[in-house]
C-alpha cells in the first residue's frame, strides 16, 4: 500500500522524505490555505522534493474551469495528479484528463455509487473520506470494503486512496481491506512506528548490553 502525507507544509514533508517510506503527497484547498503559500509555488516546491504522486486540487467548480486549472497544475511537474471534486463536472473533467493520459484523484467520495462513477470516469485514484463519514455516525471503513469488493468484481483499475484517516487503526484497516494507498496527516504517519513493547524491549536489550561494560559492538 502506498503511503502519502496529507499536508501542504513543506517543512513537514522534507523532514519525512529520507528513508523512502513516503510515496507521495495529497493536498487540498484547506491545506494550501493553512500553509499561507501560493498554490502554484507550493506544489512546485513539493514536487521538487517528492518524486511520487503529488495531488493538487482545482478550485473551479465548472467543467471548463476545472480543465484550465488542471492543465496549469499539471504543467508544474510530471508527477502532479489533478485532484477533482466528485461532482458531475468533476467526473466529466476526470474523463477528459483520463483520455489525455493525465492522472487524476477524484476526491470527496462518501458513497459506493460515487466511487463507481469515479471508476467509470477513468480516475487514477478515488479518495473516500473515512474520518468524515465516521464523524457523521457512518461506517467509513465499511465504505472502503464495499469499494474494494465492487472494483475487484468488475476489474476497475482506479486506485482506492483511503483519506481523512484519523488514527493508526484506520491505516491498518485500510491496508487489510486492500486499499491501494492511504494519505495520512504527518502525526499519524509518525505514530505508525510506535509500539510500547518495542520501546521496553529495546531498553531491556540495551540495559543488558551495558552490564557487559562494552560501549559498542567492538570488544574495546
Ligand atoms: C484527502 O485528500 C484530504 O485532503 C484529507 O484526507 C481530508 O482529511 P480531513 O477530513 O481530516 O480534512
TrEMBL record:
<dbReference type="InterPro" id="IPR013785">
    <property type="entry name" value="Aldolase_TIM"/>
</dbReference>
<dbReference type="InterPro" id="IPR001585">
    <property type="entry name" value="TAL/FSA"/>
</dbReference>
<dbReference type="Pfam" id="PF00923">
    <property type="entry name" value="TAL_FSA"/>
</dbReference>
<dbReference type="InterPro" id="IPR004731">
    <property type="entry name" value="Transaldolase_3B/F6P_aldolase"/>
</dbReference>
<keyword id="KW-0704">Schiff base</keyword>
<keyword id="KW-0570">Pentose shunt</keyword>
<dbReference type="InterPro" id="IPR022999">
    <property type="entry name" value="Transaldolase_3B"/>
</dbReference>
<comment type="similarity">
    <text>Belongs to the transaldolase family. Type 3B subfamily.</text>
</comment>
<comment type="pathway">
    <text>Carbohydrate degradation; pentose phosphate pathway; D-glyceraldehyde 3-phosphate and beta-D-fructose 6-phosphate from D-ribose 5-phosphate and D-xylulose 5-phosphate (non-oxidative stage): step 2/3.</text>
</comment>
<dbReference type="InterPro" id="IPR018225">
    <property type="entry name" value="Transaldolase_AS"/>
</dbReference>
<protein>
    <recommendedName>
        <fullName>Probable transaldolase</fullName>
        <ecNumber>2.2.1.2</ecNumber>
    </recommendedName>
</protein>
<keyword id="KW-0808">Transferase</keyword>
<feature type="active site" description="Schiff-base intermediate with substrate">
    <location>
        <position position="83"/>
    </location>
</feature>
<comment type="function">
    <text>Transaldolase is important for the balance of metabolites in the pentose-phosphate pathway.</text>
</comment>
<dbReference type="InterPro" id="IPR033919">
    <property type="entry name" value="TSA/FSA_arc/bac"/>
</dbReference>
<keyword id="KW-0963">Cytoplasm</keyword>
Amino acid at each position: 500500500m502506498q503511503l502519502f502525507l496529507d499536508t501542504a507544509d513543506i517543512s513537514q514533508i522534507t523532514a519525512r522524505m529520507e528513508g523512502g517510506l513516503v510515496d507521495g503527497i495529497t493536498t487540498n484547498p484547506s491545506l494550501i490555505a493553512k500553509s499561507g503559500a501560493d498554490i502554484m509555488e507550493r506544489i512546485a516546491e513539493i514536487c521538487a522534493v517528492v518524486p511520487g504522486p503529488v495531488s493538487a486540487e482545482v478550485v473551479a467548480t465548472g467543467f471548463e474551469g476545472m480543465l484550465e486549472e488542471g492543465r496549469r497544475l499539471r504543467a508544474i511537474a510530471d508527477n502532479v495528479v489533478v485532484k477533482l471534486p466528485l461532482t458531475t463536472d468533476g467526473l466529466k473533467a476526470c474523463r477528459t484528463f483520463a483520455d489525455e493520459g493525465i492522472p487524476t484523484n477524484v476526491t470527496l467520495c462518501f458513497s459506493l455509487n460515487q466511487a463507481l462513477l469515479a471508476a467509470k470516469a477513468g480516475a487514477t485514484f478515488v479518495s473516500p473520506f473515512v474520518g468524515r463519514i465516521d464523524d457523521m455516525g457512518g461506517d467509513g471503513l465499511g465504505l472502503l470494503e464495499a469499494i474494494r469488493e465492487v472494483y475487484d468484481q468488475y476489474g476497475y483499475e482506479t486506485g482506492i486512496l483511503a483519506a481523512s484517516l484519523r488514527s493508526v487503526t484506520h491505516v491498518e484497516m485500510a491496508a487489510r481491506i486492500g486499499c491501494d494507498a492511504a494519505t495520512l496527516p504527518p502525526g499519524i504517519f509518525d505514530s505508525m512506528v510506535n509500539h510500547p513493547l518495542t520501546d521496553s524491549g529495546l531498553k531491556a536489550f540495551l540495559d543488558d548490553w551495558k552490564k557487559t561494560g562494552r560501549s559498542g559492538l567492538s570488544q574495546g
